[in-house]
Amino acid sequence: MQPKPLKMRGLRPRAALITAGALCALIPAIPALSSAIDTLVITENSDTSLSVTWNGGAITPTLVANDHWQITLPALVSLGESLETAGFPSGAAIPEPGAGSLGPWNNVDTTVTVADPFVSLVDVQSDDSTTSPYNISLADGVSTAVGATSTGTQIYLTFHDVGDGSVGNVPDQASTAVLASISFLSLFGAARLLRRIQPS
Predict the structure, then answer these.
(1) Domain layout of the chain by residue ranges
(2) What is the pTM of this model?
């Protein structure tokens, strides 16, 4: 005598919805779950004032001229397209607040060579009419991967132009987590609704 097969009506859709909900809840945490990252946060306060942090620690930039600074990082880095651009500035280009895709630009660059693929000196130039074709385009205030250290750690750059009155409409991590929670709860609600309308 064979045992009766176990009926799993409704379990598969429910398990799929629960799994999808759990994945939605984890999406904001993916960067934290991945390998270590280094963060470079640059805030332009005015044409002569720049605030810089590397992994939360303050770094004092050197003012070269109005809207032009140099930063010496505590690690060797390569920003942008790396060795493919040896000898040319490469890094990130952030359009000025209110500017279109044709600039002016805030450029955050390193210049590496084949002999020196990683450097500690980063050049920051604001209100620049041109940008390097090797720069990665970023939005103001948005953290984006732009390069790596000599140890292979990924670098995330956030450039915020307060001096030129940036828009400031970038969602923060807290609101992203709230939106993920709402999505998660919506999936549970959909699962309950599906269970109610599913024939017995």
Answers:
(1) 36-163
(2) 0.62
